[in-house]
Amino acid sequence: MTPSIELAYLLSAVLFVLGLKRMQTPPTARSGNALASLGMFTAVVATLFVHDVLSWPLLLAGVLTGGAIGTVLAVRTPMTSMPELVAVFNGFGGAASAFVASAEIAQYLQGSRLVDASTYSPTLAVVIGVSLLVGMITFTGSLVAFGKLQGLLSGNPITFPGVAFVTGLLLLAGVVGIVLMALGAPELTTDPDITLYAGIGIAASAALVGLFLVFPIGGADMPVVVALLNSYSGLAAAATGFILDNTALIVSGTLVGAAGFMLTMQMCEAMNRSLANVMLGGFGGDGATSSALDIPEGKSVQETSPQDLAILATYAERVIIVPGYGLAVAQAQHAVRELADRLQSKGVDVRYAIHPVAGRMPGHMNVLLAEADVPYEQLFEMDEINSAFSSTDVALVIGANDVVNPAAREASGSPIAGMPILDVDDAETVVVIKRSLSPGYSGVPNSLFYQDNTRMLFADAKEAVSETTEAVKGL
């Protein structure tokens, strides 16, 4: 490796670390993403140029084409579809790693490897097998996650008896394939067909593992699945880096893999569930479709209006807004920001309470509110703000459901029992803006809707918030 490309990879690694550091908070996340992207761009250009893989015209054409595609996706993809886009990106990352591993196998079998054929050792064969296995699992698993998030597949668990056993057997078959890949190295055998058949077996079994891992997972756990698949894509990229002896890929893949896994575990902790329970539990689904009038026997609902909400909020000292996926679906973030500004101009203390698993992907609510230029200092994580609800006049819940469901504390047999929630029911008055009384993705009815201090505003989130803002202006 030449000194120039080593320097380029070192610069890329520094940009990756700086970018990841700045992604820790919404105010600096955009610049962090730009730094990390610049790091990868530097590594790709250096690799293609120094190794004379592409001419400058082809390189420039690739940059312009990829940039155009990325720009169109960034501009045209609504925030509600961002989880699906992230899932697709994870899948493409896994597929790219699998393609590289497949290319290495093909070059070895043809005797035309880019490096000395003698370097195809059992160790390298194992790394290629791991890259192929993890890459294909990530690819097919991400396709299923995309289908569930996009509504092309049911958000309910899709399973069959013995799915865990079958998945385990397929995974074991993939591991056996990796062992055979190692045995197919030139120093251990003179029959290269072992490598070919092992590679095909790994790819096929891994593709099925990816499908059978994500099909049984319900819609409530999609944020965790997206984070986990992101981790898988990083691990596959790191393995590919070892195959190509590419430091930039090793560093970036390791960072993505570690960050994705840490985020996965944090989200599992936020739901008080183990990763095994998430992967095997079949938790949640599409949610019920009950209407606003489907009130359980013995329960009663107190309805309110935008005008009444405006009066409550205007004359309150403290208001905490709790955003959820319903806010994202209605694209109500800008309307919420306008309402908050109006209330603050009247001396009301307005804050936002963010649950770790609110929405359909990690950080969904933070990104959504940042898009509407909500000041970061007004955003509070669950552990920071839960104690403040007891001294809050109005808790305004917009489209959130499971993350504010008291059943997590009260019903020991509930699927969400023990899950940490936002204690909105401690506020003096709770106003829930929601289209209906339907449960969230967990399928657990929300007892918050029927409490004495709760008022239900059945409407589209954006319309309800906009009408409330107009009413506030007249007070």
UniProtKB/TrEMBL annotation:
Gene3D superfamilies the UniProt entry points to: TPP-binding domain
User: InterPro entries given for it?
Assistant: DHS-like_NAD/FAD-binding_dom (IPR029035), NADH_DH_b (IPR012136), PNTB-like (IPR034300)
Q: Which chemical reaction does it catalyze?
A: NAD(+) + NADPH + H(+)(in) = NADH + NADP(+) + H(+)(out)
Query: Is the keyword Transmembrane helix in the record?
Result: yes
The record's Gene Ontology cellular component field reads: plasma membrane
Q: Where in the cell is it found?
A: Cell inner membrane
Q: Which organism is it from?
A: Longimonas halophila
How is this protein named in the record?
A: NAD(P) transhydrogenase subunit beta
